[in-house]
Amino acid sequence: MKRPIAMFAGTGHAVPRRALTNDEFAAMGIETSDEWIRERTGIRQRYIAGDGETLTSLVTEASRQAMADAGVHAGELDAIILGTVSPDRLMPATAVEVQAALGASRAVAFDLGAACSGWLYSAQVAEGLLATGQYETVLVIGGEVLSRIVNWKDRNTCVLFGDGAGATIVRRSTKGRGILSAYMRSDGNLADLLHRPKGGGCFPMNDAVLAEGSHYIQMSGREVFKHAVRSMADASDRALDGAKLSGTDIDLMIPHQANIRIIEATAKHANIPMEKVFVNVDRFGNTSAASIPIALDEARRQGRIVDGSTVLFAAFGAGFTWGSMVVRF
Ligand code: ACO
Fold first, then answer.
1. Is pTM, for the whole model, over 0.85?
2. Which candidate in 26, 48, 203, 314 could, as Cys together with 198 as Cys, close a disulfide (CB 3.0–4.6 Å)?
3. Closest ligand 1 atom, CA of 291?
4. Which residue's alpha carbon is nearest to atom 8 within ligand 1?
5. Measured from the CB, is residue 70 less than 6 Å from ligand 1?
6. Is pLDDT at 99 greater than 90 in this prediction?
7. Model confidence at 225, in pLDDT bands (50, 70, 90)?
8. Residue 1 has pLDDT above 80, yes or no
9. Phi first, then psi: what are they for 36, rounded to 5°?
């Protein structure tokens, strides 16, 4: 089928009220420093969900903004796809709770688990739904409340992640706008490098799991870093090739916001100068599936994406999962 089929008609984002700065970790008894975190990751602060803030509440807020931006009301939504690995409940999907909160009674709603690639995968699934001709308007969201599944005693991980949600409305392409090329990959052989070892079906939650904290996220940081750089570079090449473009044709790159050094390496490989790369990892930390749609919404609202802009997206996450898209706005 010939692209573009699907375009982004609206965006929105939401984060919790509370910003947690690097300096606050010391007061929490965590042996780290603002300098270490900034130098290794580029992160200065991240938002952390408090009482009454849930994945459903953040996603619903982001979705309302995206719907208002696109001029779409809840009854028009045909599908809701939520990229997340930190659902409010293990069952049912958080997407159905969002459906109920929005009053989107016609929509089919489901979660998609691809970690930091969650929004990018979801957007490509939405494109597939549109291609069937049965769906017109899809709400595609990336949202996480990772603060509830990180070990706040593990400095290797707890300083990296943040909470938030980014929402997009995907509709049929008009005037040649939309997804020009798209790419997705996974490699389950590397699953153990970034995972929650226990607390699922294989090792159900019990007192021992709770005591050892093996239900929290665990990560081999250095290994993940190497694979992220390699895979995001390759994914960028694939999307550019698919769109028959090169880095110099790109107006803005929006990479997954995990670490400034990964972002810089990916941009350099794609031959895109840092002035054309959107960075907000300093303010949000790594919000996993939410990172790209939050950045997309900020970029649009700041006027860094205008009609006709060509944008390259690239993501990498647990699984491993990775992928990319080139989109004309
Ligand atoms: N504060 C102070 N010291 C720390 C901290 C911390 N928060 N965390 C780890 N250290 C220590 C380590 O214990 C280690 O000490 P040791 O040498 O005595 O053992 C030392 O710092 C160096 O650790 P390295 O792992 O070599 O540090 P590195 O330069 O690789 O940076 C980091 C670590 C930031 C985690 C990096 O590996 C990284 O960014 N990896 C990718 C992580 C990532 O992006 N994950 C998510 C991608 S996928 C997704 O988004 C789901």
1. yes
2. 203
3. 50
4. 156
5. no
6. yes
7. very high
8. no
9. -60, -50
